[in-house]
Write a structure and sequence with these properties.
The model is unreliable at 1-5 (pLDDT under 50). Strand 8 (236-243) and strand 9 (249-255) form a beta hairpin. It is built from twelve helices and nine strands. The protein is globular and about 50 Å long. Helix 2 crosses helix 4 and helix 3 crosses helix 4. It has one domain. By secondary structure, the protein is of the alpha/beta class. The protein has helices at residues 11-27, 32-50, 54-64, 70-92, 100-104, 113-118, 136-146, 160-170, 183-192, 224-232, 265-285, 298-302; strands at 107-108, 126-130, 151-154, 176-179, 196-200, 211-214, 217-220, 236-243, 249-255.
Length: 303
């Protein structure tokens, strides 16, 4: 895909895009085993040398897991950087996944078939809430290829050339992307049309007023998934993608109970608590899988 630079693209953006493009060419020319080795080296370099957001990561891990020693925190933190580097490398390798068979070698989506049976197969929409856990990009890409297209709510990447390229890969096999500022209108339309709408629900809501507990600390939680599910009367599922010891990924699905909920803001807040609590359980169990580099509690810290 040929990309052109737009007005306002600066030299740093162009240089960064060039580096990412060259890295993509490299990792698509070697085996997955070797690309994983590069990811581990890159993760260790960022952790040990650049130390990008390392104080933030270690602080949040220590606050979330006060029972762990500093050595245990350091071990988890190092693996977080390795996992995020591997996520980036695997995104750069997405064009190599061309068939359902290619996808099946990387990820086990068997658990998701029941989700499709309750929604798409009955011409009914569904809200899928996921997190920056495991490889969320690979999850959406492979699920769309193996099971059926989904509509994905995304935030734009500041580097516009990279944003275009990533979105081109995301939509290669039928998935559709919607930018977050269009999520309400486009999300309602998708759900009413019987589609699956995927939203990452673990980030803070910068403009929101709803605070609840997340990983033991008070912070804002985005109500969008809850509102959309209750407004359209469709089921809501938490979908989590986790690495396995065999180097593949498995998908876990949990349908969130909507019993007793209507369409008020209070009901949306209760539903948000329910799916936030579900995501928490996975992060507590395998903290190395989550994106701790995100300043998740920044609004709490400013209160």
């Amino acid at each position: 895909m040929a990309l052109s630079w737009e007005d306002g693209d600066n030299l740093a953006d162009r240089a960064y895009y060039g580096l990412i493009k060259m890295l993509g060419i490299l990792v698509r020319s070697i085996s997955r085993k070797h690309s994983t080795s590069i990811a581990y080296w890159l993760g260790d370099f960022v952790y040990n040398t650049l130390k990008t957001r390392r104080p933030l990561v270690e602080k949040n891990l220590a606050l979330t897991f006060p029972e762990k020693t500093q050595a245990e925190i350091d071990t988890i933190a190092r693996q977080i950087y390795r996992n995020q580097a591997e996520n980036m490398i695997e995104v750069l390798r997405l064009p190599m996944i061309k068939t359902p068979e290619d996808a099946a070698r990387l990820i086990d989506v068997e658990a998701a078939r029941s989700l499709y049976a309750k929604t798409v197969d009955q011409k009914k929409g569904g809200v899928l809430v996921s997190a920056h856990y495991g490889n969320w990009e690979l999850l959406a890409y492979c699920s769309g290829l193996m099971l059926g297209a989904v509509t994905i709510v995304v935030k734009p990447i500041k580097n516009r050339a990279i944003d275009k390229q990533i979105n081109a890969w995301r939509t290669m096999h039928g998935n559709r992307i919607v930018y977050d500022w269009k999520a309400l209108r486009e999300g309602l339309r998708a759900l009413k049309n019987g589609e699956l709408l995927t939203i990452l629900g673990d980030q803070s809501d910068n403009g929101g007023s709803f605070f609840t507990e997340f990983l033991g600390r008070r912070t804002t939680v985005f109500l969008g998934p809850a509102y959309l599910a209750l407004k359209t009367g469709v089921p809501l599922f938490v979908v989590m993608c986790q690495r396995t010891d065999e180097g593949r990924y498995k998908v876990d699905i949990e349908e969130i109970d909507l019993t007793g909920l209507g369409t008020s803001k209070t009901d949306a807040e209760e539903l948000a608590r329910r799916y936030t609590s579900t995501m928490e359980r996975y992060i507590y169990r395998h903290p190395e899988e989550w994106l701790w580099l995100h300043n998740r509690w920044k609004r709490t810290d400013q209160l």
